[in-house]
Amino acid sequence: MAAATKMAPFLYDEVHTALVKSATAAALQCCGGTNGRMCGLKWTDGAVWDGTSGVGQQMAALEVIISTQIAHTQAPFTNTTGGTSTGNPNAGAGSVDNTDGLTNEPVTTGDRAGAGIMTVVVIVALVGGVAWMMIGE
Fold first, then answer.
1. Domain locations in the chain?
2. Nearest CA to 33 among 8, 55, 18, 1?
3. pTM, rounded to two decimals
4. What span, in angstroms and rounded, lies between the C-alpha atoms of 129 and 137?
5. How far apart are CA 101 and CA 97, in angstroms?
6. Tens digit of pLDDT for each residue in 91-129?
């Protein structure tokens, strides 16, 4: 929601109001665990920690709190505000430019044989690994 305000500034007031409410509730929820700083996800309960904790809860709280600072970030670049990316519909197809120092030699029978052998090795390893995991103790 915060990122949308950069692309559509007319949304800012309404979105920012909702984000501040959520960020405040999330910050109040971050009072649990053995260290007193673990966050939960039930942000409607105010300062009462909901008893859950983990990376997901911490990241969700961090994200909503940081999103309130969206006004202090730059909008994404566009072709009129400094963006310099140009498209290439051919994506290098048919290019003979070797500025990277690599050679583009034709694929040989040995290359194909090596690729086939490596494919068989990977498939056997995958099937063997899955079978080993499925064997009961």
1. 4-72
2. 55
3. 0.54
4. 15
5. 9
6. 666 655 556 666 677 889 999 999 999 999 999 999 999
